[in-house]
Amino acid sequence: MPETAVILGAGVGGLSTATALRDLLPEPSRIVLIDESFQGALGLSLPWLLRGWRTRDEILVAPTEKMLPGIEMVQATVEAIDPAGRTVRTSIGTLSCDALVVALGAVLDTAAVPGLDEAIAAGVAGHFYTVEAAAHAHDLLRDFTSGRIAFLVTSMPYKCPAAPYEGAMLAADLLVETGVREQVAIDVHTPEPFPMPVAGSDVGAGVIEMLHGKQIGFHPDRRVEHVDPAGRRILFDDGQYADFDLLIAVPPHRPPAPVAAAGFSPAGWIPVNPHSLATDVEGVWALGDVTTIDLPIGKPLPKAAVFAKGQAAVVAAGVTRYLGHPAPEQSFDGVGNCFLEAGGHLAAQGAGDFYHPGGPQIIMSEPSVELHHAKAREEADWLARWNPGVTGATGETEDQ
């Protein structure tokens, strides 16, 4: 019987692992990729959709069998995972395997904040962590003419540590374009002590300076208790509150239900070896946003697509060796970067070694047009890989 490797999730990590594994595993070994929809978008495109520099159709990718030769695509919902038995129950049946890779990402849970769903339904709140939500948030911002906009980080961890801050600056940029910026106050509220805390206080201070340069208020150590949609007010756990006319939230993130139920950890996220991405269960790996990796400073590695991409080759090689085939020894080194859009077609970038024994060594560059173009090229490469021949985003943004 041929060996079977099953990959759960066709996001950045899952797609990258599947293609790398197909290059390593000999035929007739089976590679099965399971996903609920086989449709998605790079997270770095969503702030541009919020800004209005992208449309929904320009950033969506929908891989087909032609793009994944030698990989069995199974469209189904993952309902339960038995890590020890390496068995997965889905909405269309149960599948056993010799090696299992979990790349199911994180789930957004707006209902975890009392009142947030009601505020979204009332049209006074939104978020930009999915394609549809980012398009809706753009409409809300485009139609906004005066008052106060609050960007709210509801809890940690969350995907892309830069997102709430670049979202606020891109919102300010859009309001300049619509001619109402002087009539609008913008504030960011977060439970963090400073922006992007894993990157260090110097990086955080630099981001605060960028926000202040855009006349955006920054309010740290604020933990939301509930949202009052009728009164348009955010209530925090220390009794303080913040009024808003429009709320843009970073929704709470949680592990997918079947992952949490599988018992990898009390918190539900999957702890992995920081270098091999192997779990404590033999024959099971995990990568990307569904994992938790503790850094030497005691904080977790941020959830970001750049890490999922870097981890994919390591996981593919590990699975191949586990199944008894030759593959290069690879180790994930914790090196990564994150773009931070500042508006005006300028972007900064935080880059460095997150695994440094003394704590992450991250350098934040000054915003530049060149880095904005670098982000656009990264997006264009991903779109060209999974949407060949589809006209859409060219890697540039308007007015360039």
Question: Would you give an account of this structure?
Answer:
This protein folds into two domains: 4-36 and 76-106 and 255-331, FAD/NAD(P)-binding domain (3-Layer(bba) Sandwich); 111-252, 3-Layer(bba) Sandwich (FAD/NAD(P)-binding domain), CATH 3.50.50. The chain starts with a strand and ends in a 14-residue tail after the last helix. The protein is α/β, with parallel strands linked by helices and 400 residues long. The chain contains ten helices and 23 strands. The strands form seven sheets. The protein has a five-stranded parallel sheet with strand order 3-2-1-7-19, covered by helices on one side. α1 packs parallel to α9. The radius of gyration is 21 Å and the shape is globular.
Structural class, by secondary structure, is alpha/beta
Main sheet: strand order: 3-2-1-7-19
Rounded to the nearest angstrom, the distance between the terminal CA atoms is: 56 Å
Number of helices: 10
CATH class of the largest domain: Alpha Beta
CATH superfamily membership of the largest domain, which one?
FAD/NAD(P)-binding domain
**CATH architect. name of the largest domain:** 3-Layer(bba) Sandwich
Low-pLDDT runs? 391-396
- Main beta-sheet strand count, sense and barrel state: 5 strands, parallel
Measured by DSSP, the beta-strand proportion falls in: 25-35%
State Rg: 21 Å
Question: How much helical structure, as a percent, in the residues?
Answer: 25-40%
Instruction: Supply the number of structural domains.
Output: 2
Overall pLDDT confidence: 95
> CATH topology of the largest domain, what is it called?
FAD/NAD(P)-binding domain
